[in-house]
Amino acid sequence: MNETHLEWQKEQERVDFVHSQIKKKQETLKQNAAGLKQGIIGLRETFWEDVTVNLDEPDDVIETQASLKQQAELLSERERSHGLLYEKLKKLARLEDSPYFGRIDFFEENETASDTIYIGIASLLDEQEENFLIYDWRAPISSLYYDFPPGPAQYETMDGTISGELELKRQFIIKNAKIKGLFDTGITIGDRLLQEILGNQANTKMKSIVATIQKEQNQIIRNEKSKVLVVQGVAGSGKTSAALQRAAYLLYTHRETLNSQNMILFSPNPLFNSYISTVLPELGEENMKQTTYKQFLESLISTAFELEDPFMQMEAFLSGEDQERISVIPYKSSLEFKSLIAGYLSILSNEGLIFRDISFRGRVLITAAEIELHFYGLDRHISISNRMRLTAEWLLKRISLFEKQEREEEWVLEEMQLLEKEDFLEVHREVQRKNRRMKAAFDESEQEEKRLRKKIVQQHFTPLKKRLKRYGFLHILETYLRLFTEQHPAIEEHKPVNWDIVSSVTRTAVGRKKLLWEDAAPFLYFRDKLIGRKSYTHIRHIFIDEFQDYSPFQFDYLKELFRGASMTLLGDLNQAIYPHSQESESLLSDEDGNVEEERIILTRSYRSTREIVEFTRTLADQGEQIIPFNREGEKPEVIQVAAKEDQYQHIISTVRDLEIKGFETIAIICKSIGESEEAYEMLRSSLNIQLMNQDATSYSKGVVVIPAYLAKGIEFDSVVICNASQEVYGRESERKLFYTACTRAMHTLTLITVGEASPFIKKIPADKYLIKKL
Ligand SMILES: Nc1ncnc2c1ncn2[C@@H]1O[C@H](COP(=O)(O)OP(=O)(O)OP(=O)(O)O)[C@@H](O)[C@H]1O
User: Fold this and answer.
1) Confidence class for position 588, pLDDT limits 50, 70, 90
2) Cβ(474)–Cβ(528) below 8 Å
3) Which of 28, 508, 669, 717 could form a disulfide with 741 if both were Cys (CB 3.0 to 4.6 A apart)?
């Protein structure tokens, strides 16, 4: 037996030992859990037997309450312990088949011997609960595994830096508690293991990368010091993967003070939410709240408004039909527009807010002019929103006085006749109860009438009061629209040259209560300044994926809402596909101009084969900096056909070929939803395919037809680009969309073009792809 075999055998013996420990622990825990469960069932069954219930005297009531509380606490304590046991069992189940993936031998400075440390997705103690059989990958010492090749190494702890020598770094592939692969690794984490993992088929759910996190990704995951961490990484560089590992890391490191409810992830589309939903649970953490920016804004906007879907904005952009609208999107997305609104708000602080009369049953109770007078009579140093709150309180008080007076009106008596019998009975009982309590005899019918009047008037005033509490006395929309019509010297000089178009496009849409995607953040920002905003202080960390797709205005609005939270922003300027997409870096500075961000650049692309990366990187700005991971595959193929009908024939034969080769997730990527629908109709009788639109929330293995912007963030074994012709991808503004579509491919990329190929393809060196002209 040679040395490698001997090592392998020794390692397998250890795996066997750890596995037996896991089994033992599982047995003990299961027994404990069964005992606890029985106890809980028993406690629930006999709950009332052990409680002394006596409600005769006030003292007895107090005693009963105390006894009930004690019993309930006992039950919830047992339930909590059962929950904890269940969690431990879940953790053991995760470790059972593959207890760990890494080992390091570390000789710490000033120590006499080296420590051997095994690293897995969770920690495990030995039977005596003294020594770690497995260290959690997030433990401080585990960072050695990700950060250093064998040689001098160090890691940070709460007590400072620990230095020493990393003597060995070993990787395992363990399945069903049997070692399937064992590699001693050098500079990077196991190219061989990474090769193997990346060579696998794409899945409809993202997987965790815990065993093969790369050094530069580990910097993202373990970054603790930056309030804003910006990860600018090329397509397929692991931005999303690293962000999710980072969430798991933060939850582990700050487990006493942070939980998944304190984090929120903004993802590019609903499909993506489902795509990444299994990563955190796989790592033993609960999913954080996930939302898209559209869903988030929708939760803030009154249902009276119709909010445009960002993908519809994208469709409008792609179709190029409404040029006026498209021409003003950049301005409406900019911080200049925000400053203009801020200027308008400072005018409104002194004059110009539009109020509404407050009417009741067709009668004006308080006029808009009175409200205006009250509002502008308040101390002007107080913010508009606080003055608005004070005004609402003042109005509610005044309305209560009207309400009292109204009880005496004739209409109340008329309405009383229409009341149901139950209403009279209820009031009758209330009055009797009150009289009994007061031990006095009042005129019951007089009292009943009084109560009924009060009740009727109250019912009528409730909706009005609700409206006032929601600031319905302020005409927010009218006030906003006035910005576009009025001239005021304080803001006039800040208006852009195309203000007339900005103004007419906005008034037409917003006036009809249609919030175009580019109008939503400005309008909400304005509204918040008038009536205050929702508080999100419980959110301590926000992750924004595809942050290049946020306009400066949208991003700034988000920053204001989540003022106290730290942020991880993940983006790739080469995938900035929206008409407004941010290219500016200054956005990420804080208000005083102090840059509090840290920027990490990822240039290595892991998703696609070397051949695909060499093809796609020529489509990107500074694409020469993109480094492909060394995984080989076939060169992308460009098939040029003469007519559209031929295109579909070739898509069918390409997809069939791919299926025969065993590829399981295949995407036919089109530019727009219209083209996707057409392709779907043409292909559905020959292929088993699913059409993905903006409402899709998940997809299954097989063939999908999808517009490029919805495929963002997702990957497929094979990508077939539907019509990569000059006609479809000819404009410079379509280059990034084309790049995004092509970079979704892991193993194969086929581009079909009807007629002349896109100029972007023509710029790619001919040796980077195969071409078939038919
Ligand atoms: N360290 C790693 N180990 C194993 N797989 C990795 C690693 N880093 C990235 N990958 C894989 O590379 C692929 C791309 O990763 P991911 O989707 O996180 O990249 P991205 O930068 O968010 O991509 P894009 O911007 O193109 O959507 C995924 O399959 C991911 O599992």
Assistant:
1) very low
2) no
3) 669
Q: Ligand 1: residues whose CB is within 6 Å?
A: 194, 197-198, 207, 209, 212-214, 217, 233, 235-241, 572, 606-607, 713, 715, 743
Instruction: Please tell me whether residues 601 and 694 are part of one structural domain.
Output: no
For atom 13 of ligand 1, the residue with the nearest CA is 607
pLDDT of residue 86: 84
- For Cα atoms 10, 13, 19, give the angle at the middle one, nearest 5 degrees: 145
Asked if pLDDT for residue 559 goes beyond 60, the answer is: yes
Q: What is the pLDDT of residues 633-684, one digit of tens each?
A: 999 999 999 988 899 999 999 999 999 999 999 999 999 999 999 999 999 9
Q: Which atom of ligand 1 is nearest to the CA of 602?
A: 21
Whether residues 750 and 637 fall in one domain: yes
SS3 (DSSP) at 157: strand
Question: Distances from the Cα of 169 to the Cαs of 10, 118, 151, 438, 622, in angstroms?
Answer: 16, 10, 10, 83, 35
Q: Are residues 628 and 767 in the same domain?
A: yes
Claim to verify: residue 460 and residue 599 sit in the same structural domain = no
Distance 710 CA to ligand 1 centre (A): 17
Domain count, the chain: 4
ipTM > 0.95 for the complex: yes
In a domain, 285, yes or no: yes
Going by alpha carbons, the residue nearest to atom 28 of ligand 1 is 607
Q: Is residue 174 part of a domain?
A: no
Cα–Cα separations (whole angstroms), residue 35 to 26, 42, 71, 79, 92: 14, 11, 19, 12, 19
Pocket probe for ligand 1: among 198, 201, 241, the residue whose CB has the most ligand atoms within 8 Å is 241
Residue 570 lies in a domain: yes
Nearest CA to ligand 1 atom 4: 209
595/629 same-domain check: no
Q: Which pLDDT belongs to residue 535?
A: 84
Statement to judge: residues 241 and 372 lie in one domain: no
| Phi, psi torsion values for 654, nearest 5 degrees | -65, -45
Range of the domain at 37: 1-97
Residue-level pLDDT at 696: 86
**For residue 494, is it within any domain?**
no
Which DSSP string do the residues of 707-726 spell out, in sequence order?
A: EGGGSTT--EEEEEES--BT
As a 3-state breakdown, the chain gives helix, strand, coil percent values, each rounded to 5, of: 50, 20, 30
Q: Kindly give the distance from the C-alpha atom of residue 8 to the centroid of ligand 1, in angstroms, as a whole number.
A: 31
CATH classification at residue 688: 3.40.50.300
